Structures are given as C-alpha cells and as structure tokens.
Amino acid sequence: MKKAIALLLMAVMTVAVMGCGSSAGGAAGDGTLTVGTNAEFPPFEYVNDAGEPDGFDIALIKAIGDKMGVKVEVENMDFDALVASIGSKIDVAIAGMTVTEERKQTVDFSDPYYEAVQYVIVKKDSTIATADDLKGKNIGVQLGTTGDFLVEDIEGATAAQYQKAVDAVNDLLNDRVEAVIIDKNPALVFTEKYADQLVALPGDTFGFEQENYAIAMPKGDKELADAINKALAELKKDGTFDKLVADYIG
C-alpha cells in the first residue's frame, strides 16, 4: 500500500514539474525552438567575432524564447531556403523577412515587429537618381528577398542574384553591377563602411512601399503563433524590445 501511494505521489509530482516547464506549444512543444536565419543582413543578423549568428533578430528571438520558457537554437542558412525549411529542418525563421502574400501561401507569420523599406545603393559618381534611371540596369540583389522581386517589375532591368548581400555590394564596388537594392538598415550599414565610395538612396524616391518584418512559422500552428505573439507583446510592453532596437539598430 505504501509503495502504491509513493508511486502515485511521484506521478503527481512529475505532472506538476512538467506543468511548470515550457509554456510553448505546437512546434516548440518539446522545449526547443529551432530557428533559421541568414546571418548576412546587418544589423538584423550577422556573424559576430565568436563565429555565431548575432544581431537584432537573433537577440529578439532569444528574448521571445525566454518568455516562452524554451531553449532557442539558431541555424544559419541561405535566405532562399528558409521558408521551405520551416516544419522540417527548422521550427521558425527570423531574418528580416517581409510579409508577402506569396509567402503567406506557404507559411504563417507572427505579428509584425519592424517596419522597413527598400533602399538603392549606388556609387557616388552614379547618375541613378529616380525609378526611370533603374530601367535596363544590371542590379544586384540577395536571392529571394524583396529587392529580388522588385527588379522583376523594372523595365529592362536584370537581377544579378547573390546568396549574400555583401557579395552584391562588393560587385557594385568593382563595377560588375550598377546598383544594389536592399533593405534600408543594411543599406546604411554597407554605405557607412564604404562611405568614400557608396551612397544609399531612400526607397520612396523610387516608389518602393513600406514593408513589415515578421517571424515565419508553420502553416496552421496556432498554438505556436499565439505563444510567440504573446511573448512579443510582453517584450514590447516591458521595454525589452525598445532596448534591443537601441542596442542593435540605434
């Protein structure tokens, strides 16, 4: 009888301990959130001096993981492979990814966490200044990004596609492309690094519309989506989100 009672108490304690663990559900129900990123998009993601993915997005998803009570593991991969990897190799993706109708056919998105717009990087002696000036140009873009999609709508323009944005910028410096289309913040990072050679032109000059970044996750996983959105809202409310913006973006 005593043995039976002891076993019963152990079972109750085990259930109680499990109930005090992760508050995540869905794909993160095992206590680990495997996150895909492309660490070639500063200041949102980059490889730090220790050789690890870092940046605003990485800090944000780790803070979200803390709120959810799960361990976050980050996988660095090509940007154009992220969406296809969700639900198999990774649970979610955070990589300065714009919410688009095309992507929403394959994955669900969290609540937006950042507003962005595309910029055009050119050499300082370039004559490119308006949307018409981009017609017929050879334009560097990161494969699978908004910039890649935008070139499709520019008359006569050719997209020179790269896995890494920095490679597109390097080819601009070496006159292999005539411009690079990329999101505002990394555009400013690259032009600051090469301030004597490059300049970043605001996207509204070219008619580019504002975009929203969000976390991509498996289609229909409402439990995971609710957990991530709840954590994101808490981070915005308690000031953590604003601190991360100040630390990484300024």
Write down how many β-strands occur, each being a DSSP E stretch of 2 or more residues: 14
Assigned CATH architecture of the largest domain: 3-Layer(aba) Sandwich
How many strands, which pairing sense, and closed or not: the largest β-sheet? 5 strands, mixed
Question: Uncertain regions: pLDDT < 50 for 5+ in a row?
Answer: 1-22
> For this structure, what is the CATH class of the largest domain?
Alpha Beta
Integer-rounded radius of gyration: 22 Å
Sketch the topology as an H/E string, one letter per element. Answer: HEEEHEHEHEEEEHEHEHEEEHH
**In whole angstroms, how far apart are the ends?**
65 Å
- Beta percentage is 15-25%
- Spatial shape: globular
Mean pLDDT: 90
Helix-residue proportion: 25-40%
Concise summary:
Helix 2 packs across helix 8 and helix 2 packs antiparallel against helix 9.
Please describe the structure with a list of short key phrases separated by commas or semicolons:
single chain; alpha/beta; D-Maltodextrin-Binding Protein, domain 2; 22% strand
Description:
The chain is of the alpha/beta class. It folds into 2 domains: 30-115 and 212-248, Periplasmic binding protein-like II (D-Maltodextrin-Binding Protein, domain 2); 118-209, Periplasmic binding protein-like II (D-Maltodextrin-Binding Protein, domain 2), CATH 3.40.190. 36% of the residues lie in helices and 22% in strands. The protein has helices at residues 2-19, 56-68, 82-85, 101-104, 146-151, 165-173, 184-193, 222-237, 240-248; strands at residues 32-37, 46-47, 53-54, 71-76, 92-93, 107-109, 114-116, 118-123, 138-142, 158-162, 179-183, 198-201, 211-213, 216-218. A 5-stranded mixed β-sheet has the order 10-9-11-8-12. Strand 2 and strand 3 (53-54) form a beta hairpin. Helix 2 (56-68) crosses helix 8 (222-237) and helix 2 packs antiparallel against helix 9. The protein starts with a helix and ends with a helix.
